[in-house]
Amino acid sequence: MILDGLLQFSGTSRGGTVGGGTNPVTATNDAPTTGTQVSTNIIDLGILGIPLSAAGGGARDIGIGDDPAMKLLVQVVVAFASGTSLQINVQGAPDNGAGAPGTFVIFASGPVVAEASLIVGARLFDVDMPRPALDFPLPRFLQLGYVNVGTHTLGQIQAYLVLDRHDLPEQANATLGGYPPGIAIAN
To answer: How far apart are CA 84 and CA 76, in angstroms?
Structure first.
């Protein structure tokens, strides 16, 4: 799996740290705390030299519906505490005609993940990049929305758009596991 800084929803690709103490927020992580928040980065699919998306072209083809399709990778890197739940939304916006995002619309919503499941390594929204709604133009800009219930005092995630994801099944403790115990495979 290749993590591309240009397809990174959370933080920067430099990996610097912000703050200090026992739980510094690294520049590569997002730390949703309360209410509805959005990812640190907006991914711009526009290409210079080609007419803007609002004029009918210019957006990078991220392979929606292709095989393999671009995939979302949203993973907990610091366990969450003190909140109730977290939900991830994929949002897109067309160009507003001036090279900036128009109004963001939710394309897809992930499951509501309870606080007890927001442990290190937990994957929150493993899906192929969803198609926009039929009545919505192709987006030039993408971001993630974080819907928090309660107030999280700890918790960080990393989020990317990737071509391939390591999708080996994980056990309940978010470690790679494969088959659960007790399954016999005939040779």
So the answer is: 15
What global pTM score does this model have? 0.79
The answer to whether 142 and 90 have CB atoms below 8 angstroms apart is yes
Q: Which amino acid is it at 95?
A: D
In DSSP terms, which residues pair with 161 in a beta bridge?
A: 72
Phi/psi at 173 (5° precision): -95, 15
- The pLDDT tens digits for 148-173 are 999 999 999 999 999 888 776 666 66
Using only C-alpha atoms, the chain has a radius of gyration, in whole angstroms, of 18
Degrees (nearest 5) of the Cα angle 79, 175, 34? 20
Taking the C-alpha atoms of residue 69 and residue 72, their distance in angstroms, rounded to an integer, is: 10
Length of the chain: 187
Q: Over the stretch 60-71, which tens digit does the pLDDT of each residue have?
A: 777 777 778 889
